[in-house]
Amino acid sequence: MKSKQFTLFVLILVQILELFMINVLAININNNNNILPLEHVTTTSLLTNNKESKLLSSPQSYLSLSHYHSTCPDLEGIIHRKVQAWIRKDYTFAASLIRLHFHDCVVRGCDASILLSHKGSERRAKVSKTLRGFRIIDEIKAEVEKKCPNTVSCADILTAAARDATVLAGGPFWEVPFGRKDGKISSAREANRLVPQGHENVTTLIQIFRDHGLNILDLVVLSGAHTIGRSSCDAINHRLHNFNGTRKADPSVDTKYLNSLKKKCAASSHVYVDLDATTPRIFDTAYYTNLGRNMGLLSTDQLLNSDARTGPFVSVLASQPLVFSSQFAASMIKLGNIGVLARPNEGEIRFKCSSVNRAY
Questions:
Q1: Is the pLDDT of residue 277 over 50?
Q2: Catalytic residue, candidates 67, 101, 103, 226
Q3: pTM for the model
């Protein structure tokens, strides 16, 4: 078992290194053999080679770390100050912003479609009923519009806000490439179909992630965001009282933990409980340690520990906090690049995050 864990540890390190090279140290050698940082590579600089020009056909290739350097230089400062102010008032908003970003990206990509508020939108979906953080994004957008009108997308704001929320909770920092634009379509039906709801099996979760270009390691690592945040008792009542229609509790739940949850949820199904029972305010690896103790709050969390495809990753991450921190940053970069609208003819820069521009 130790040998297998060591092998997985090495594989994780390799993935971290590969993503680091792609996102931070990637270079392009042009005809004059000049080395250019990826953020400075343009379509023009690559037109001399057909293979290279095809690389820039992907929407992600239009994203850049310097996208707003001249048009909105204080963007990240504005976002950070607003997110920090809200989290200082209520630390639970850190998890809320990360979750809001995830919900956005798994439906139509990271295009801020979750922020649109109209009948039948993702925001009105059943799976979105406990989402929070919309007001934070609206406040940031309003401030940004004052300083840099019609320049910064809501999709970019939400992506950077999720990063800052992670940092403010004690998690890792990563550079966010910008240039996303906002989508014009938002569907509650799609959200209810595509967003994990806490009762899927591991095979389904793996497929959901693969459909978005994410692998099994990304699944286990991004689930680690549950080291902070909460869930309603309504989402776990079936595990406490009627697991799989047996009228009994889920036998996989630690007995002491089960009794504690029953007491907390006795008053109402609307009561919230921490996803991490031991250090709910700290971004750490206790989430994975808890899974090893059968103290995963959601069944989807606990199954990650028992499934042969994901369990070994859980074991490695539980004992390697630096690996978790580095890989979480890497997986969040991948998440933030899903299905982005970045080409010249795609999407728009919304004036207001809750409405498409045609409403004005």
A1: yes
A2: 103
A3: 0.85
